[in-house]
Each structure stands twice: as C-alpha cells, then as structure tokens.
Amino acid sequence: MCNRGAVASGLIVASTRIALPATLGGNMTLEYEAPQRKIRPLVRDDLAYILPMALFMGFTWMGGTWPSLYPISYVAKVILVAAALAFLWRHYTKISWRFWWLGLIVGVIGIFQWVGMQLWLQNHVEFFAPPDDPFNPTETFAGSGTMLYGFLAFRLIGAVLVVPVMEELFWRDFLWRQILAPNDFKLADVGERSWSALLIVSGVFAVVHGNWWLTSIVWALMIGGLLVYTKSLGACIIAHAMTNLLLAGYVLWYRDWAFW
Q1: Helix (H) or strand (E) holding 65
Q2: CA-CA-CA-CA torsion sign (19, 25, 29, 34)
Q3: Mean pLDDT of 21-45
Q4: Which end of the chain is less crowded, N or C, counting CB atoms within 10 A of the terminal residue's CB?
C-alpha cells in the first residue's frame, strides 16, 4: 500500500491504492481519493513584504518621538525585523545574486554620492541643515564601554545585514512590481522596465528618509537603474549593504552622528 497527495481545485487529494486478493479480481487495483481541505498560509504574500517594513518604521518612529527610547527601540527593531524576515522568508521571491560585483561597485559610488551630496546641501542650503541634537552613542553610553560597543554592534548589524534585505525586498521587489501589476504583484517580473515604477519607488523611498530626501532620491534612482539593468535583487541588496557599511565607517571615523 502507498499514499500520494495532489492539489486539485483548492483541495489536497489523498490517493490510496488497495490491491485486491486474487479471488476478488486478481491483480486489479482500486484507487480511492479522499478530498481534504487545503491549509491556507497564515500570511498573504503581500503582507509578508509589508510587515517587516511596518515593524521597522514603527520602531523608528518610536525612537524619533522619544529620544530616550532610541537605543532600545533600535535594538528591538533589528531583532524583530530579522525574525520576521526569517519567519516569512518562504513568501519572498527567490533572490538572484547575478552581477553581485556590480552591486559592490554601485555601493561604493553610492557612498560618495550620499555623503558628498548631503554635505554640499547642508553647507549651501539652510533647509537641509542637519539636526542640532542627533543621537550620540558616545555620550549616551559614556559610562559603559560594553554598552557602547554593544549598541554600535547592533547598529552595524542593522545597517549592513538587516536593512538592505528588508528595504530591497519591500521597495524594489514588492512595491516596484505592485505598481506594474496592482492585482497580483507577482505577475510582474523583478526589475521589469518601467519609468513609473522607477520614479514612484524612488520618490516614496526619499519621503521616508526625512531631511535626506533629495540625496536619497538620487541614490534610489541609481539603485533602480541597477535593478533594471541586472534584473538582480541580490545586486541591489549588496549595493545597499556596501553603501551602509561605508557610511558607518564615515560616521564612526568623523563622529558625524547626523548621518545615522
């Protein structure tokens, strides 16, 4: 006796083969199919992309609204967003890592664009002046080197490992394709050429980056171009991670905390 399952018309069909004795039909085999209900996923595919971003934005808002909660809110969002990504991973499009080397190059170009452009804007346009009191971990954790280095470690993990994956999945996988195929985003291809997707995604990306909106929209246009050229979400993740890693190096070297 052997069992096999097949999905048909929204049902899981269990098929059982039974061999009859010779007196009842020789070697004849009967097959009985017992329909069962298909188990629905706990989360829809679109919500799987939205939930980690919602968690991230919620804790970011918390840390910005109550500065005293910034350290704990950042640690919490790194842990919870990473856990959400791991739990929901099966819902995401399989990531292609083609042109990873081009992602590295674009990420290096991105740090010069990001820091260079923002510094120029801050120095020449008052509207883009940095905040007067950015969070300074060396002051907050002045009495504890362990707390300071622990927080900086979480800050680096978040910026280099968690944020690039979470943001690229949301911006240039989900939202990009959602614009092209509103009824079912997975009907659109990753990196499908579209001026509307490029401009809308870059614009919304810029809005959530606050006073860095002009700098971030230029950076997002560059990453969008990388996506269209390579059709590789992995290349975009690597570019994002490289820019964030080099930005962390700039912040820690020059103590320019406004960039964090």
Answers
A1: helix 45-65
A2: negative
A3: 60
A4: N
